[in-house]
Amino acid sequence: MSRTSTLRTLAVWVAFAAVLLVLPMVFTSRTSLTVMNVMGIWMVFALAYNMLLGQSGMLSFGHAVYFGLGGYAAIHLIVAIKAQRLGIPVFAVPLVGFMAGMAAGALIGWFSCRRSGTPFAMISLGIGELVAAAGFMFVSVFGGEEGISGDRSAGPRIFGLTLGPQIHVFYFIAFWMFVSTLAMWAFTKTPLGRLANAVRDNPDRVAFIGYDPQRIRFLVFLISGGFAGLAGALSAVNFEIINPETLGAQGSGAVLLMTFIGGAGVFYGPIIGAAIITFMQSMLSDFTKVWQLYLGLLFVVMVLFAPFGIGGMVARILGAVKRGELAEKLPGWLLGTLGGLTAFFGAVMVIEMAYRIREGGRPFRAFGRDFVHTSPLNWLLAGIIVAAGIAIVTIAVRWRQRGTLGAALRFREVAP
Amino acid sequence: METIVFSTLNGVLYGLLLFMLSSGLTLIFSMMGVLNFAHASFYMLGAYFAYAIGATTGFWAAMLLAPILVAGVGALVERYGLRNVHRHGHVAELLFTFGIAFLIEEIVKLIWGRNPVPYSPPAVLQQPLFTLWGTQYPSFRVFMMIVAVLMFITLWLMLKKTRIGLIVQAALTHPHMVGHLGHNVPLVFMGVFAVGCGMAALAGVIGGALLVTDPAMALTLGPIVFVVVVVGGMGSLGGAFVASILIGLIQTFAVAVDASLSDLLARFGVMVSNRSDLGRITLAQVAPMLPFLLLVLVLIFRPRGLMGARES
């Protein structure tokens, strides 16, 4: 690494830390603090998940197991700190979460990492179901339906944080988020991190040059489980409660959606995904009851047309700026975005009107107009808008493929 | 004796339901190498379509129409979704079907709501068929077994005795050669995917009426079907059959046997207090865990599954 790039990297991390410090001074309301805390937790979890998905090509459908077990280890420790008056600060609890996640990863990874690809995904799904079912069964450890709750303000303090008020929790989460993000970024630069990429791309060649792909997968799985456990511990401190549902399929699915939508190919992708989806979850649910449908739609569209995710788009734009191609590419991108937004608006119309068929309520309102679901005209309009949006996107894609806008508008490709 | 006979009947019944799902899944997997995460969602769609169509046409027409419709949906998903994702590799395909499963569940919630819909078998099939030891056995269950068995015989005959089946079998192992011989392999793939989805939907038409039709039905059955496919051996129809029946029987017997874990362990000379967490758990509670436990054991001791030919 040259000196300038080292300096630049350093600058990025310093800026990141500064943003974290300043954020609660800009967004001071209680709601935004709550949302930011949840975002921080999911960012760590999504980054840990991406060590598997993006870095090593392992698709897991049960990563919430390590998140949940880390959280349980943390909450048991928090309860013990209060009951036994242990001299351990709650601030250090995430380390225990890390160790718990890692231990669970060692146990489960021992047999699940023997396989890769589809079998690995299926095993992770089975393990996830197994652990979630066991969670509801062993009441003394997992607390049954109502879970286990603790009091985060007990125990000695560090940095003068009592962890009572939300703002203290924010800095607590921000600290651990920064440390884990830095650690996970540093991991990508280690030989093991590089080998993980090699295992993802071509496991046979890795075996030929003398490394054991199974072992590499296992080691990455361990570390990823550890950071997932750390995120779980952050969640335990933030909510002061954890229940067996945390271990289940919902969390595993959510972290997969975040990581993929954010972009599994770039390091900061999961951070973007976690921020966007947590924001959607807390804000969008006020506007529409079916926000999860939008999330699913977004996911499927991205798998089909933009598998590089939002982070990948950012990386492309930055790359174009660096190479000075922005002016050349921007019109096509803008047209594509316009088409995408148009189609999306049409889809929103269809979904919102369909929702009102069964549930009733006030008609869907947009651009100062009511769209009543009983009028067939509105359905026709929605269909036209979707079709128009798809047409615009098609033109934008052809523009890139054929070079000029004139060629893109022609129905058939003219042979040169 | 009574418990054993009824549990066996119900276990075989549940196993057949599982096989109706896992046979399609295995067929799709062995042909395209993609494990369709949304398979159980098509099962759910079958139940809901049958409920919606049945409201106007009655059960019998719905039983025919719903699978055909779902097969159409499956064909569309394959043609415009899966085929495009295919070039990005297996993980992308798995992600795509995961997204489809998520989307189908949300769409079902949007149209039919979050609560179960009142979908039940027709009156003719609700009467008891025979009485054993004073307990009546509903005729719908027997009907279900007949439908399942008929479906397998049809599937088997199609695969083994017709020209289409010959091409499908050949395309399973040598897609390129079949393509060179002038057959439209992508069309064969689409057809197999559609038929697999249709079979899942037929299972849904029956399973929905037998069990419960709600948006969670895909999520409750889906993982178990995957267990069946992995335990039986990826891509092996015979293995899927054995594993389906096995898991059906295990689960039914675990629920039927009224014993706690401490009783069971005591037989092996391990004493666990009845008051402890471990001792209080009854076998019925463990039942939902058993398939996944079986999965883990099979993966550790026999990674290629009961009758699987290859490792992955």
SSE blueprint:
The complex is a heterodimer of chains A (416) and B (312).
Chain A: H1 3-26, H2 30-56, H3 64-84, H4 93-112, H5 117-137, H6 139-142, E1 148-149, H7 166-189, H8 191-201, H9 203-208, H10 213-239, E2 241-242, H11 249-262, H12 269-287, H13 291-305, H14 309-323, H15 326-359, E3 364-366, E4 369-371, H16 376-402, H17 405-409
Antiparallel strand pairs in A: 1-2, 3-4
Helix pairs in contact in A: 1-7, 2-7, 2-10, 2-11, 2-12, 3-4, 3-10, 4-10, 7-10, 8-10, 11-12, 12-14, 15-16
Chain B: H1 2-32, H2 39-57, H3 59-85, H4 90-112, E1 128-132, E2 135-138, H5 139-161, H6 163-173, H7 175-180, H8 185-210, H9 217-232, H10 237-256, H11 261-267, H12 277-280, H13 283-286, H14 290-301
What does this structure look like?
- The complex is a heterodimer of chains A (416) and B (312).
- Chain A is mainly alpha-helical and 416 residues long.
- Chain A has two domains: 20-301, ABC transporter involved in vitamin B12 uptake, BtuC; 325-409.
- Chain A contains 17 helices and four strands.
- Chain A has helices at 3-26, 30-56, 64-84, 93-112, 117-137, 139-142, 166-189, 191-201, 203-208, 213-239, 249-262, 269-287, 291-305, 309-323, 326-359, 376-402, 405-409; strands spanning 148-149, 241-242, 364-366, 369-371.
- In chain A, the strands form two sheets. A two-stranded antiparallel ribbon of chain A has the order 1-2.
- In chain A, a hairpin with a 2-residue loop joins strand 3 and strand 4 (369-371).
- Chain A is globular.
- Chain B has one domain (2-301): ABC transporter involved in vitamin B12 uptake, BtuC (Orthogonal Bundle), CATH 1.10.3470.
- In chain B, strands 1-2 form a two-stranded antiparallel ribbon.
- Chain B has 14 helices and two strands.
- In chain B, strand 1 and strand 2 form a beta hairpin.
- Chain B is an all-alpha fold and 312 residues long.
- Chain B starts with a helix and ends in an 11-residue tail after the last helix.
- Chain B is globular, with a radius of gyration of 21 Å.
- In chain B, helix 1 (2-32) packs parallel to helix 5 and helix 9 (217-232) runs parallel beside helix 14.
